[in-house]
TrEMBL record, chain A:
It comes from Daucus carota subsp. sativus (Carrot). This is ER lumen protein-retaining receptor. It is found in: Endoplasmic reticulum membrane. Its main location: endoplasmic reticulum. It comes from the Eukaryota. Belongs to the ERD2 family.
Length: 215, 10
């Protein structure tokens, strides 16, 4: 464990909590893609299949449970909460994310560390996390609504990406057997897609602030 | 070795 990875885990968790609290506080999920949140929940469930078989540390196990619970809570809120679900942009959130799931599954069956059930699903979750933001990117381009995608959420999501890239650089420089290629390359793709999301977020945020009536 | 397949990153 290094400080970059710990900071990355913390900012990742904070970004999820910020989004969950925003949805719960405003009882609204307008502008948020349920499909992206479903993909994130699927990422954690398929990545942490080893929760009950491999014990690495208390921190590792506790964080796995927390990530699964918080990402599932967001999906539950958007699908089941009687007030929140009314504000879901169902007509705009139409990205066919099933193709992302199938594509990542095929890729994981081809490129993985070891051909075991757990390893294939681990690689699947790594690839899926990289592309999971696409439905949210498309919804943002269509709706331009950033009310619930607070600046803090976008900031912590970006910080998570930045810290993890620093973590991989640190591990590459300090460890003999660097074998995080799947995580590293997929993480770079994820960061590039995040940068694209950030660009559209900034454009939408600027347009919205221009639209504000002069107080 | 064993650690090759345990993923210690979240």
């Amino acid at each position: 464990m290094n400080i970059f990875r710990f900071a990355g885990d913390m900012t990742h968790l904070i970004s999820i909590l910020v989004l969950l609290l925003k949805i719960y506080a405003t009882k609204s999920c307008a502008g948020i893609s349920l499909k992206t949140q479903e993909l994130y929940a699927l990422v954690f469930v398929t990545r942490y299949l080893d929760l009950f078989t491999d014990f690495i540390s208390v921190y590792n196990s506790v964080m796995k449970v927390v990530f699964i619970l918080t990402s599932s809570a967001i999906v539950w809120c958007m699908r089941r909460h009687r007030i929140v679900k009314r504000s879901y942009d169902q007509a705009l959130d139409t990205f066919r994310h099933l193709f992302l799931v199938l594509g990542c599954l095929v890729l994981a069956l081809i490129v993985h560390d070891k051909f075991t059930f757990q390893e294939v699903f681990w690689a699947f979750s790594i690839y899926l996390e990289a592309v999971a933001i696409l439905p949210q990117l498309v919804l943002l381009q269509r709706s331009g609504n950033v009310d619930n995608l607070t600046g803090q959420y976008v900031f912590f999501l970006g910080a998570y990406r930045a810290f993890y890239i620093l973590n991989w650089i640190y591990r590459y420089l300090t460890e003999q057997h660097f074998r995080l290629w799947i995580s590293c390359i997929s993480g770079l793709v994820q960061t590039a897609l995040y940068a694209d999301f950030f660009y559209y977020y900034y454009i939408s945020w600027k347009n919205n602030s221009k639209l504000q009536l002069p107080s | 070795t064993g650690d090759a397949c345990t993923h210690d990153e979240l």
